[in-house]
Design a protein that fits this description.
The protein has 215 residues and is mainly α. The chain has helices spanning 10-17, 25-38, 43-73, 91-115, 118-144, 150-189; strands spanning 3-7, 193-196, 209-210.
Length: 215
């Protein structure tokens, strides 16, 4: 585990001399939570983690676009058949709507978790439930309805499930990269924030003031 420590004294004086305000208590608590969850080894590893997550996110989104083009856009399937009972979109619209709901819902969910906000978490829950209904609806219609055959319903379900899962993974990677980027900028703007080596006791990472030793 990594540990981040704020040092007092001369380094903080340097920040003040440059008219750079020290981070607020809320910012420090947020940075501590992000560092504790994502566990960077040291200051230099943050940039590597951002790069890795951004690269994987871009690759997943590219694969998502190719899969959507090959399995949804190119086929000559009649998507006006068996429109959704939830606000009436056709299947092609659902293949775009569900990933958007999951992407925005993931952002709101992480925002609610990191900042302890109620409303974003509530909205993200509604988005996730609506997404699940859209994903499973074709399978239910295939077995319980007479508009789609079971094979057609399962094929629509499989495409929606894969498109949703890939967007969810990409959203998580992107959110982590953005949060790490914020921590990286915070550290660059305030050199007094430093990482220490992991302690032998295996303590959880925390941000705390270090008392300057007497001369």
């Amino acid at each position: 585990m990594s540990e981040s420590v704020i040092t007092d004294g001369e380094e903080i004086g340097e920040d003040e001399s440059l008219d750079i305000p020290m981070p607020s208590e809320e910012q420090m608590e947020l940075a501590e939570k992000i560092i504790s969850r994502l566990d960077p080894k040291d200051r230099s590893s943050i940039g590597e983690m951002i790069h890795s997550r951004a690269r994987w996110c871009g690759g997943i989104l590219a694969a998502w676009a190719v899969f959507w083009w090959l399995t949804v856009l190119r086929p000559t399937e009649d998507y006006s058949v068996a429109t959704s009972i939830f606000f009436g979109p056709d299947f092609m619209t659902v293949t775009i709507l569900v990933p958007c709901l999951i992407f925005v819902g993931s952002i709101l969910s992480d925002f609610s978790r990191e900042l302890g906000q109620l409303f974003p978490g509530l909205v993200s829950g509604i988005m996730f439930v609506l997404s699940i209904l859209y994903v499973f609806e074709p399978a239910v219609m295939g077995f319980a309805g007479d508009v789609l055959t079971p094979a057609e319903g399962m094929w629509r379900f499989a495409r929606l499930a894969l498109l949703s899962a890939t967007v969810y993974a990409a959203a998580k990677l992107l959110i982590d990269a953005v949060l790490l980027g914020w921590v990286k900028r915070l550290i660059e703007n305030h050199p007094s924030i430093q990482f220490n080596e992991p302690s032998a006791a295996g303590l959880e990472p925390e941000i705390e003031p270090a008392v300057e030793s007497e001369a």
